[in-house]
Description:
Layout: E1 2-3, E2 10-11, H1 38-49, H2 63-70, H3 73-78, H4 80-85, H5 89-109, H6 116-144
Antiparallel strand pairs: 1-2
Helix pairs in contact: 1-2, 5-6
Amino acid sequence: MSTCQQCGIGNLPTRANCTTCGADISKAVSGEEAELSALWRIRFDLVEKAGGPGRPLFKQLRFGERFRLGFNLWAWLFGPFYYVAKGMWRKAVSVTCLSLAVTVFMSALAPDGGLEFLNVALNTVLGVWLVLNANINYYKKVVLGDNGWW
């Protein structure tokens, strides 16, 4: 928790401003949380506004907020490489291994390539999962210290 220097209220370390008085508290955090850009602070505020990583209040967000929280362009362009760059290598390894397993299984099941459409569909689903969960997974890593395999 970051304590506001003006009012003394504790705030989550991802917040840029105090929730009570609005004072700048970005200088009060330390470690990886202090290195967060303004964009990540906004995304993390949206995660908290959505009710945390489970996002129970997601539908109450405006369209733009939902889009900003649920879509990460860099994860879409670079997939597992983006996860590795952000220090979430376990999730990158898990998804890559799962993707390879799906490809090998489909190739063994239909060596003539008859199930190639299913292979592409399943790997596309894994890619979409990476894109839609990149911001939440980074929030879990930085704020909650959860850098698990899935």
